[in-house]
Amino acid sequence: MSKELRKITIDVVAVLLSVVIFWIPFYFVIVNALKDKKESSLLSLAWPENFQLWNNIKEVVTARDYMLLRAFYNSTLLTVLSIVFLVVLCAMAGFILQRRNDRATPWINFLVLSGLIIPPAIVPTIWVLDGLGLFKTMTGLVMVEVALGLPFCILLYRGFMASIPKEVDEAAIVDGAGGLTLFFRIILPLLQPVTATVIVTSSVSIFNDFTNPLYFFPGAKNATVQLTLYNFSSQYVTQYNLLFTDILLITLPPLLLFIFFNKKIVAGMTAGSVKG
């Protein structure tokens, strides 16, 4: 088999796998969101006889005193706050870890890597948050999301920082720039590719998070978009049309974000891995 034919075969197999793994389930969600209660209960891939999407959307949005709108607000606020802290903290940490080289550096790198390996502990985290008075608060949940996202984002920033020459730092210091001025006015703007990667990947992860809001931010008024799936599935046990409509509504924002910024994600990941 020639190299060109082998490459074409691999591409065809990859496309078919993506169709099976992603597009067929997504098509299943869309089709059943278009149906009424009776048709959707069959859970089939058949095209609906009567389109009820708009009615389903109205019923889902107004259910439980507009819970879905509150959930979108909570998830958006959680995502924005977490991303701001992640970008600033991880960019600073990546900058320092890449530039310094002393005895403490290997141990700090080990701690960062251990954050990717060691699983989070639910009960001790609840105990700590409750002791700080942050349990069931947005602040506490933001701290949890930031802590879980720190290791991966620090590694991305540290890898990308290797592509920025140290002469840039030295020139800025010679011109009289202090530490904060050097970082925020010179280094941080140069990190735009990897920052775009961090923003998109972390936004999708945090916006779609189910377990952390469930454990650390309980309560009907504190519901996030993923928790509405749990609530709808318990309220509408047999009304799959409403459940799939809810899935469709909360899937579209991160999906569109990922589609539009896909090239920037790849660019940031590639630069960090090759030059790091």
Task: Please tag this protein with its features.
mainly alpha; MetI-like fold; disordered C terminus; 276 residues; 13 helices
Describe this structure in words.
By secondary structure, the chain is mainly alpha-helical. The chain has one domain: Orthogonal Bundle (MetI-like fold). Helices cover 79% and strands 0% of the residues. Helix 9 packs antiparallel against helix 12, helix 9 packs across helix 13 and helix 11 runs antiparallel to helix 12. The longest helix has 47 residues. The radius of gyration is 23 Å and the shape is globular. The protein starts with a helix and ends with a helix. The C terminus is likely disordered.
Can you describe this structure in just a few lines?
With 276 residues, the chain is an all-alpha fold. The protein contains 13 helices and no strands.
CATH architecture group name: Orthogonal Bundle
Mean pLDDT value: 86
Spell out the CATH superfamily: MetI-like
Note the total helix count.
13
Number of strands: 0
Classified by CATH, the class is Mainly Alpha
The CA-CA distance between the termini, in Å, is: 36 Å
The CATH topology assignment is MetI-like fold
N-to-C order of helices and strands: HHHHHHHHHHHHH
SS-derived structural category: mainly alpha
What percentage of amino acids are in beta strands? under 5%
Number of structural domains = 1
* Major sheet characteristics: none
Give the helix level as a range of percent. Answer: over 70%
C-alpha geometry:
globular
- Alpha carbon gyration radius: 23 Å
Question: Low-confidence segments, ≥5 residues, pLDDT <50?
Answer: 272-276
